[in-house]
Please model this.
Amino acid sequence: MPPGHLDAAGCNVPSDRVMNAVVSHLRLERERGGYAAAPDLTPARSALAALVGAGPEDVAFLENGTAAMAALLGGWRLPPGSRVGYARTEYGSTLMLLRHLAAHRGWKPVELPVDADGRLTLEGLGAGLDLVIVSHIASHRGIVQPAAEIGARCRAAGVPFVLDVCQSLGHVEVRGANATAYVGTSRKWLAGPRGVGFLIVPGLTPAMDAAVPTLGGHLWTDSGEQPGELPAMPYEQSGELRAGLGERIGELRAGLDEQPGALRAGLDERAAEHRARPDEQPQQSGEPRTGLHERVGEPVPQPGAVRYESSEAAMAARAGLGVAAVEQHAIGPAAIHAHLAELGRAARGVLDGAGGWRVVEPADEPSALVTLRPPPGDTAEAAAARAAEASLLVGVVPRTRAPLDLTEPVLRVSPPPGTPLETLEALARVLAR
Model:
């Protein structure tokens, strides 16, 4: 472990075995060729799935947690008007995604109540909702949400439950949440390589698929039509479409009367192209089309979560994540969780009050993600810079990470396993300066 590293919540330090797995696979790709060297990721899927109590068929690899959340929600066929519960402590990228889906799908985001620490209020949770999304531990606050209780209440209400475990898997217990889906990343508490995340979906339903089908996760199937045939758009509809496009271009042209004549002439030409032409013969239904319109069946998702994957990816990073997950089992998840909880308690005890800095979480919160608010006259950015001068690596969480909850950036201290008390004491002296 590099001395002074206190940013596991940002990017942890991979073990030698993880690093060797990544480098060895890259060498293998160079020697054999990338496709010939494709690894068997079944053990990696099994090890990762077991950390949440799922099966290997439930695991999909993506490039990061944000991409995994976008893949999950982007293809989930919830009808317009669906009410999606979230907390004000939710991660900024997920809030952006929910806002986008609200605008384009008609989803209705519903803010869930939390207490003064940011912990979800359980009473009535799930009632009147169609989906609940929760970050088990937020990026900007080390509060551990009661995932098992949330999962139980959502199941009782018949509501799907998505648990973001980017800051919790490898950090605290996740098994028992019984979520519909888990979204996570490699580089934090699992101490895997950057550039790979995952989606675990034990509660897959027919309404859940990737937003866009790919050859990595979908298959062509015969739809009953002959290859090369595509049902033609009815001529009446196609004519209306062409006329509509022509009218729209005409409207644009009318607003450009002051533009150069060449531009107006070009618009006139494009409008004419899209109007129904008397000499144009309609294409009859069933006539073969070629090129882009060739029909080879319908893409259907493969069984399991692999439907969310792309086959073209950083395979070395996926292999490294698999080794990191196997290491979690070898050491023992419960032992890791207990050690990190103790590190968190030690960090809060040493850092709270140093130079006027105040710890945000309760002293006994069972996590090693510690956040501090600055005293008057100091800032998280300035403290992080002083820490860097003392060869200490800490994180700064900007307001954009939690725009509904943060009023100013906070300092984040997240000691990885094995951090000595002396490192935390050195940081306390930096904060006191």
About this structure: Confidence is low (pLDDT under 50) at residues 223-246, 248-253, 255-260, 274-283. The longest strand covers residues 83-87. The chain has eleven helices and 13 strands.
